Amino acid sequence: MKFLSVEKLEAGYSELPVISNISLELEPGEFLAVCGPNGSGKSTLVRAVQKLTPLVRGKIILSNRSLFELKPRQVASLLAYVPQVFEPVFAFSVEETVAMARYYRQPGRLAGFTEPDRAAIEEAMKLTEVSSLRRKKLNELSGGERQRVLIARALAQDTPALLLDEPSSHLDLNFQLQVYQLLKELQKKQGKAILVAEHNLNLAAAYCSKLIFIKDGKIVARGRPEELLEKEIIRQVFGVEVEVRTNKSTGLPEISLVHPGSEPGISREEAFPGPGSES
Questions:
Q1: Which strand (E) or helix (H) includes residue 206?
Q2: What is the mean pLDDT, run by run of 10 residues, along the chain of 279 residues?
Q3: Is 158 helix (H, G, I), strand (E, B) or coil?
Q4: What residues does each domain of the chain span?
Q5: Rounded CA gap, 242 and 183, in Å?
Q6: N or C terminus of the chain: which is more exposed, having fewer CB within 10 Å?
C-alpha cells in the first residue's frame, strides 16, 4: 500500500508552475530523496505534496485519501514538515516551539498537554540534543541549533511520515551525520516514510533507498543510489564533472568534484584565466 501517491503534479507560486508532470510514490518505511540543482523545484515539490504552495494541480493521494479533501488537522496527523528556512516571528522558547507539534491532538484551545504529549516532547528534544536549550528563545540560537529544534518539533508530532527540506543545511558535519542516522533509525525501527529534498548527494546516497533527480521542474532520473551516481548522469543534471568512488564504510557510491585545472594536461592558468587574458 502506498502512503503517498502523486500523479501529474503541477505546482508553483503563481499561475506559471515551477514543477510540472511530477509523479512519484512513497511507501511506508521508505526513505526517498529528491535531489537537483538550485532552483530546480525540489523544495517546491516537498511543499506542494502538503498543499503549501498557492498553485497545486494534479492528483495527490495521502493514506488512501485525496489531499484536497483533508482538513489541516488531518494532514498534521499524517505529515510532519521541517522547512529549509525558518525565521521566528515571535520570541518562543525552544520547548514551546517543540510543544507546538502536539497542538493538533488537543480537543480544544484550552486543553492541557497529556503525559504522552509531554513524553513525546521530551523524547524529541533528547534525540536532537536540544534539551539543554529548552528555555532559550529561537532568535538566540545559531542556524544549526534552530534547525535541530525544527527537527525536534517534527519528531514530537509523531506522524507516520516526515518531510524535510534540505535537513543538512546549517548543520556542521557531525550533526549532518547524526540527523541522517536518526532518520534512518526512524525509518527502520518505526517504519516511518521519509521524503527529503537534499543537495548533499553523498548523504542522500548513503542513507536513502531511492533517489529522484529533478531539473528545470521535471523529473529526469530516478532509481537506487548505485544507479544514479554516475559521471554522465551527474554531468547532465548538475552540470559538473565528478569522480565516483565506493565508500568503504557503506559500499555505496559517493562523488567528489573534479576541480578545474586538476585534470592532467590542464594548467591552472588555462582553467582560471586572469583579468586581461585572451578569450
A1: helix 201-207
A2: 94 94 97 96 96 96 96 93 76 93 72 86 94 94 88 95 91 89 92 95 95 97 96 95 93 91 54 45
A3: coil
A4: 90-157
A5: 27
A6: C
